Amino acid sequence: MAAHQTATLKRYEAFADDIAHLIRSGRLQAGDRLPSVREASHGRGISPSTVFQGYYLLEDRGLIEARPRSGYFVKSRPTIDESCEPDVSEPAARSHDVTVSELVFQVLSQARNRDIVPLGSAFPSPTLFPLEKLSRATGKAMRRIDPWRTVEDLAPGSVTLRRQIALRYLASGYRVAADEIVITNGAMEALNLCLEVVTMPGDVVAVESPTFYGSLQALERRGLRAVEVATHPRHGVELEALAAVLDRHPVKACWFMTNFQNPLGALMPTENKRELVAMLAQRNIPLIEDDVYGELYFGNGKPPPAKAFDRQGLVLHCSSFSKSLAPGYRVGWAAAGSFVHSVAQRKLMSSLGAAVPSQEGLSEYLQHGAFDRHLRQLRQVFEANQAIALRAIGRWFPSGTRVTRPEGGYFLWVELPRSVDALQLHRLGLAQNISVAPGHLFSPDRGFAHCVRINVGHPNDRRVESALRTLGQIARSMV
Ligand SMILES: Cc1ncc(COP(=O)(O)O)c(C=O)c1O
């Protein structure tokens, strides 16, 4: 019985593979009718149920579709529209120890090589930033610096820079005092310090699903457990699912990206942010808000962070200039609410302060530079790149591929047919000098194995389009 089943399995898979090959090679085209079940069964000498099984498999792979009373047809290539977006995630209900770091280091170490097309990178192209203007601002600031600033700029950081940051909050319509801000070495340090202040090893932290691997690494580093919350690809964390998680687990903090979440690009609606802050305030749970992409919106105005609704000092808002203005300067901050003194003390204990030239240079640029003009250009580049990449993905990726269409940032999250193994795609891509970030990196249980994150933050030249075409071809060979 078992042997007979195995033989049948092999036959329907072989049948499906033959048809898939005809489709990929172009001998069967979109809209072509496949042989009827009777014809195929006669022609190949297999039973009608084997033919059916083969057709079901091809349907699952997104290659063919059944039309009522007409038979099976080759599906047309996907057009990427809203119905092709990935679904809300369905994470496991349990919490996890986190051990992703080794995989993250392995996968991402190659992505820094400039000869590799960096579709897997977390960074936008460094060529898109006003590095010359920044260096002039830094030179100017450092030439006339009062020597005592080198001491005064230790944690919580340069008062002029903190005032500039506070002014940007104010210009966006909400008040965050300069005294509430601690300058850090990039957002990553701000996030780590905040996490240390609000948790103890062994605690449970709620994260999105999928989530930025950097947040998982921070949890791993501190010996925390992660519980994932269902996340919508466009609206972010599902608040009902969050409430259920908070009822079930002793969550000590939440770590969410409310604006252009990495990797989904989700933007939490303003009303949801307000509700989120209220829900957590009711339970006295701090929110670590990771908001490094908030400036990179394509719409008319900057979306507020959840911090805008914080009345109790429970939101620790973390951001940086790394993705918006000054990559490599390593300047970020935490607007840490009622935790500001603990965060500043931890910053002093761990690294005393952020580098003075970076702080003073940025401070000078923000006062006299053209940050907003630069941001307008940057957003336009990312939006245009996104449109080109979406077209290329629609054209070259396997039928059944789903992709997000974020309203800001520079990532696309691509859900491939389930038979595609993203780690294998990453390896085969690297062999052709293309990096891609496999979905395995974005969840503590290595889910999302058929998903990849694609960076569209690099000049959209021939190289990128041809890399997307090659990736699509590799993925199609796995379907
Ligand atoms: C969501 C998110 N948070 C934080 C960071 C780290 O930011 P920074 O380079 O300022 O430390 C990154 C960088 O990839 C990120 O994607």
Account of the 3D structure:
There is one protein chain. The chain has 479 residues and is α/β, with parallel strands linked by helices. The strands form four sheets. Strands 3, 5, 6, 7, 8, 9, 10, 11 and 12 form a nine-stranded mixed beta sheet that branches. A four-stranded antiparallel beta sheet has the order 13-14-17-16, with helices on one face. The protein has helices at 2-24, 37-44, 48-60, 101-109, 131-143, 149-152, 159-171, 186-198, 213-221, 239-248, 270-283, 340-351, 356-368, 371-396, 422-431, 462-477, and strands spanning 64-67, 71-74, 96-97, 117-118, 181-184, 204-209, 225-232, 236-237, 251-256, 287-290, 315-320, 332-335, 402-403, 411-415, 434-435, 437-438, 451-455. The relative contact order is 0.15. The model is unreliable at 1-8 and 78-82 (pLDDT under 50). The chain has 16 helices and 17 strands. The protein binds pyridoxal-5'-phosphate (PLP).
The helix count comes to 16
What is the rounded Rg? Answer: 25 Å
The largest sheet is:
9 strands, mixed
Percent strand equals 5-15%
Give the distinct bound molecules.
pyridoxal-5'-phosphate
**SS class:** alpha/beta
Distance between the first and last residues' Cα: 29 Å
Helix % is 40-55%
The number of strands is: 17
Average pLDDT for all residues: 91
Principal-axis shape equals elongated
Report low-confidence residues grouped into runs of 5 or more. 1-8, 78-82
